[in-house]
Design goal:
It is a single chain. By secondary structure, the protein is mainly α. It has one domain. It is 83% helix and 0% strand. Helix 3 crosses helix 7, helix 8 runs antiparallel to helix 11 and helix 9 packs antiparallel against helix 10. The termini are far apart.
Length: 253
């Protein structure tokens, strides 16, 4: 299989992953029913029970997608993970600074266009993020990090390296995997602000992650970048939103 048919397999496989995760539970009433059913059997709150179920479903479907793509590309686990080069730590630090700077720039431009936009509030209302925040506090870092791990193995691992293994050049592999990653994030949101913020941050993360993978000859540094990025910004949005909601009450005392 060469690179173009493999790219089609990537689109179909990842599209199936996201569709199976999103479509069956797009109806809020169905989510409530499933949450109540799970709460009766786990003793958790309905929102926490459904959040845990949704997280496990997303991760399992992602692992299935990863295995399928590795099989089509003929990637071994050793080839997928690679062995980081000696300068991997320095490259990772530069990637963290670059990704954070690009993300801050994109959000700043949004505030310049619409100063009244509530970015933290919009982000915490994204379905998968609100599900994470419904879980116990100690999981607010763990779950985004684990989800980022699976996503990175799929997009910077199976897609980026898989296209290279099937004869595609780096530029095509990097652009394709980055755009596919960004589209995959955007289809899981419901407002234009959410689409802009997650779309632009995904493009920044995908670009720097692809360059980092190529520079270090391993997906592990990009995996560390994505895991720290996901955990930090998920919790930052929740903290910023909580402070914004509590500010009027403090002023009124």
């Amino acid at each position: 299989m060469n690179a173009i048919p493999y790219a089609g397999v990537c689109v179909a496989t990842i599209g199936g992953w996201l569709a199976l995760y999103r479509l069956p539970f797009g109806d809020p009433a169905r989510r409530r029913r499933v949450g109540l059913w799970l709460a009766d059997r786990t003793g958790l709150r309905p929102d926490a029970a459904f959040a845990l179920f949704g997280t496990v479903l997303y991760l399992l479907l992602g692992v299935v997608a990863l295995v399928v793509l590795m099989a089509f590309a003929g990637l071994s686990v050793q080839r997928l993970v690679g062995r980081p080069s000696a300068d991997a730590l320095l490259a990772l630090l530069l990637a963290v600074c670059g990704t954070s700077s690009l993300n801050i720039l994109c959000v700043s431009l949004l505030y310049r266009v619409n100063p009244r936009v509530d970015v933290p509030g919009e982000i915490t209302r994204v379905q998968w993020i609100s599900s994470i925040l419904a879980l116990p506090r100690h999981l607010h870092w763990v779950v985004p990090a684990v989800a980022a791990l699976v996503e990175e193995l799929v997009f910077r691992g199976a897609v980026l390296l898989g296209i290279g293994a099937t004869g595609g050049g780096f530029l095509f592999a990097a652009a394709f995997s980055t755009v596919l990653f960004a589209v995959g994030q955007v289809v899981l949101v419901s407002t234009w602000v959410q689409a802009y913020v997650l779309g632009m941050s995904s493009l920044a993360l995908g670009t720097t992650g692809s360059l980092l993978t190529a520079a270090t000859e391993s997906v592990l540094p990009a995996l560390a970048l994505h895991m720290s990025f996901a955990g930090f910004y998920t919790n930052l949005s929740a903290t910023s939103r909580a402070r914004a909601l509590s500010a009027p009450r403090r002023l009124s005392l």
